[in-house]
Write a structure and sequence with these properties.
The protein is of the alpha+beta class. Helices cover 22% and strands 30% of the residues. It has one domain.
Length: 81
C-alpha cells in the first residue's frame, strides 16, 4: 500500500448534495503526483469507499495515466443509488 504517491492537494466540500456537474467541478485538479518515477511500469489499484458519479476516481486516475507504462484498476466498496 502506497499512500504517498498520489496526494490530495486541495480540500473540497463534501460531494453529497452536489449535482453531477458540481461533483466533477469540485474534484478538478485536486490530486498531484509525488515520486512519479516510482510508479513507472506499475499496475496501480485505486480503492474508493463509495462510487457515485466516478468523479473522484477519474480525477485520481487522470493523474496516474501521466506516468509511463502504468495500468490502473479500481476497487469500490459500495455504489450509491
Amino acid at each position: 500500500v502506497c499512500v504517498e504517491s498520489v496526494v490530495r492537494r486541495k480540500i473540497t466540500e463534501t460531494q453529497t448534495r452536489k449535482s453531477v456537474f458540481e461533483r466533477w467541478e469540485n474534484v478538478d485538479g485536486i490530486f498531484e503526483l509525488n515520486h512519479a518515477d516510482s510508479l513507472t511500469g506499475k499496475h496501480i489499484l485505486i480503492v474508493d469507499d463509495v462510487l457515485t458519479t466516478g468523479a473522484t476516481i477519474i480525477a485520481c486516475a487522470s493523474r496516474l495515466v501521466e506516468v509511463e507504462g502504468t495500468r490502473t484498476s479500481v476497487l469500490t466498496l459500495a455504489m450509491a443509488d
